[in-house]
Amino acid sequence: MNKYGPSRGDLKFRLTFSIVGLAMLTGAIVYRGWPTGPGGWEAIGIALIFFGGTFLWTLIKLIRKDHPDGL
After folding, report:
1. Residuewise pLDDT in 10s, the chain (71 residues)
2. Per-position DSSP letters for 28-54, written without gaps between them
3. What is the reported pTM?
4. What's the pLDDT at 68?
5. Which pLDDT does position 44 carry in this prediction?
6. In this structure, is the dihedral angle defined by the CA atoms of residues 9, 12, 14 and 17, taken in order, positive or negative?
7. How far is it, in rounded angstroms, from Cα 11 to Cα 42?
8. CB count in 10 Å sphere of residue 34
9. Cα–Cα distance between 65 and 71 in angstroms, integer?
């Protein structure tokens, strides 16, 4: 168990935030279509790395119960 770091509530908020971000990214792609230029792909890539990485990191922390109040 980790003594320091975000609490369980913080991790749940981050998980919800990343799910909403990924849903909004998906909605934007469905609404606007796939980008045609490199700038659009860059924006999608950065958003995907940020929200996807946050989602995976948070999910792993919650599953392993690796947070201060994780008993």
Report:
1. 667 888 899 999 999 999 999 999 999 999 999 999 999 999 999 999 999 999 999 999 999 988 887 55
2. HHHHH-S-SSHHHHHHHHHHHHHHHHH
3. 0.85
4. 85
5. 95
6. negative
7. 27
8. 8
9. 7
Q: What is the rounded end-to-end Cα distance, in angstroms, of the chain? A: 8
Q: Which two tokens stand for residue 61?
A: 């922390």
Q: What is the pLDDT of residue 66?
A: 84
- Dihedral of CA atoms 16, 55, 51, 33 in degrees, nearest 10, equals -90
For tokens 């860059």, the residue is: 42
| C-alpha distances out from residue 3 to 13, 35, 57, Å | 19, 44, 17
Residue 61 contacts residue 12 (beta carbons within 8 Å): no
